Structure formats: structure tokens, C-alpha cells
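Hi Y.,

Following your request, here is the sequence exactly as I used it, all 311 residues.
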Amino acid sequence: MRGANESRVSEFLLLGLSKEPQQQHLLSVLFLTMYLATVLGNLLILLAIGVDSRLHVPMYFFLGNLSFTDICFSSTTVPKMLANHILGTQTISFSGCLTQMYFLFELADMDNFLLAVMAYDHFVAICHPLRYSTKMTQQLCALLVAGSWAIASLHALLHTLLMAQLSFCADSAIPHYFCDVTPLLKLSCSDTHLNEMMILTEGSLIMIAPFICILASYVLITCAVLRVPSTKGRWKAFSTCGSHLAVVSLFYGTIIAVYFNPLSSHSSEKDTAATVMYTVVTPMLNPFIYSLRNRDLKGALRKMMGRTRYS
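Below is the corresponding structure, written out as C-alpha cells. Let me know if you'd prefer a different format.
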């Protein structure tokens, strides 16, 4: 019976966000606008950091890496969705689906690790300002980023290989706009217990360890800031961390809602709404959150714009 219900799936159907043609047009325009804002905003941050020598410090080195990761993250899903809409198709090949899933895992992990590294950077800057330059060396910064890429790549490869071992039923319709792990597991005719167990154990560890690092950093930062006698000094310290905390809350809130619940409790509508938040909305908001609350970055952007106009 099992063999009769299974077939070799060569492609999947991405059903998208809506079945109504008019809504699909509106959503495509909205996603295109958000994608262009994401790419433009993050590219401006990368250019500002590259052009202004005052921003060649660890904090902006990590922010530049976050901007690069966010551009890649959005580019993993949105262009394929827009291309399918323009071409009037919903298909994605089996290999293309696994490739997309691999980069989603890798880039989501990189966002996760970079947020933790940035929290540690804030902790050293606020709690150990006199030793900041000796602690946050160029070698350590490069090692933190390279190590993050290595762990993220291995984690993504593990889950992609586990997914590749599964058999899929004749029904290959994914109620989503990209190949996410949860709807793929629901389509499988194989036993997905190992995949689910790895998500809830190894996957949880990958997410929780950096989150604990962020919490610990901000608990220590808060304790240090509360000891500052000047109200102005306290406000400046909290203001420095405010943008980072906003991004952390948005990113982790949606990730936890989507992935760290039993498979039976998931609904495609809620999962899709949450994934839109962390795959499209968060990368779009990051440049605005970081630049609007950062005097140095705003100054670098104004300086760069002024040079462009003069040229």
C-alpha cells in the first residue's frame, strides 16, 4: 500500500500566498516593493560602511555582514516567487526546492549568530570600554564571522540531506511561497520522526545558544548601565542597544512561532504569516532600525549622498 501511494517527485507546486488572481497581483507588487527596499537599504549600509573609515570598527563590521546576509536571505525566496507570478507557473524542481531550503537554513542561522555576536560586542563596549580595542581585535571579529558561516553551513547541510532521504506522495502542492521545512515534512510519505527530532534538538540548540548569549549580554549591560550616575549616560547606553533589541525580538519571536512547536499544531496560514515576517519584513526593516537610531551611520549616509550629488 505504501508503495502505491508514493511516487518519485521531480517538482513541487508553490501555491503562494493567495488563490485569488487580484490578491496575487497586489501581493506581488507589495513583495517587489519590500524586496527592492531591502536590497537598496542594506546596500546603502554596506556602501556607507565601506566608504567611511570611521565606521571600520567591529560594530559596523558585524552590521555590514548582517546587511549582506539579509540581502541574500530575501533573495532566496522573493525573486523565485515573483518569477513564478510573471511566468504564470507555480513549479519548483525537487533539487531547486532543496537548494532553496539549504540557503534558508544557512542564512537564518547566520542572522541568528550575527545578532548574538553584535550583542557581545555591545556588552564589551559598554561594560569594558577601556579594554574594548584589545578584546575585539580584527582577528577575533573575523574568526567569529567565519565560525558562524561554518556552523550555519553544516547545520543547513544536515537538514537538507535528511530531507533528501524522504519519499514524497503524489500530492506535491506546498501551501507556501517557498520550500520551507514544515510543509515539506507534511507532504512526505516517509517516517519524519528523525527530521522532527533533529529540528527540536539540534535545531533548538543552534537557536537557543545564541539567544542565551544575547540575554546574558543584555542582563550584564543593564546591570552596568544602572550603575551609571548620569541619566544622560544611561539613556545613551540604552539607546545604543535599543535598535538591536527591536530586531532580536522580531526575529526570534517569529522563528519560535514557526519551528519550535509540534508538527501537528501547525497551520499553513499562521506559518506563512510568521515566515513573511522573518524572511521579508525583518530584512527590510533592519536598515531603517539601525540607521535611524545611529548618528554615525546617518552621518556616513549623508556624506555619501553629498558626494554622489557633487559628482
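Confidence is low (pLDDT under 50) at residues 1-7.

Thanks again,
Q.
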